[in-house]
Amino acid sequence: MLTPDSVAAELAGWHARFFDSDDDAVHSSNDAVRSSNPAQASDDDARPTTDAVHASDTAHTTNTRPTTAPLTAHRLSDFRELVLEHGEGALFKGTHPRHITASLFVLSTDLSQILLAEHKKAKMWLQFGGHLERADASLADAALREGREESGLAEFVHVLPEPCDFDIHELGGGFGAICREHWDVGFVALADADAPVVVSSESENVRWFPVADLPDGGAGGMAERVQSALARAKAGLEN
């Protein structure tokens, strides 16, 4: 069951694993994810003060820092601070304009394709994901639940336990007055590209795309997020 304490502990655990560990394989894996998009500014270098980040509930986050960031100590701290400051409001829809969500990037087993959904409300092609539920065992569990619900996939060939990125994006008015920013934690799973998929009530379509040829009309930062997902998958399979 998700609680502010359990999510804060999950985030702290990733910090310890990726930034306090003496395991060279762990550091190598995280370095691969962080360097998956060389054009992206370092989140550590671009991180503003806490006051600048939280100055306005409706401010667009790109005014203060990159919206998409691989695993960095500063970005993990930002997410943990959100949970510690706002408690359940930072976890569940309907009580605070900023809250954490979980996404699942579903890649084919050969890492050449990605399964995306054409989202009805957002009107764009997206990875699977959404709001947390109290019954979720963890953020990773929430991402897997969303992936199953929105893709119809019965099982995944391989699930990477660590997140691939942290994305903060502002939402349009169609998501309601209270839901203004999603602080999204992305995870990765591999699936058989021949497995049957089902279009959920939240989507217009679900289909595979080459990772090198993503569809037009995708979310901003999608290409960077896919590269982070690929890097996490490659690093995880190698280790």
From TrEMBL:
Residue ranges of domain Nudix hydrolase in the record: 97-234
Record protein name field: NUDIX domain
Bias (Polar residues) ranges: 27-40
Comp. bias intervals (Low complexity): 58-71
Source species taxonomy: Bacteria, Bacillati, Actinomycetota, Actinomycetes, Actinomycetales
Domain of life (superkingdom): Bacteria
Annotated segments matching region Disordered: 26-71
InterPro entries, per database record: NUDIX_hydrolase-like_dom_sf (IPR015797), NUDIX_hydrolase_dom (IPR000086)
Matching Pfam families: NUDIX
Organism: Trueperella bialowiezensis
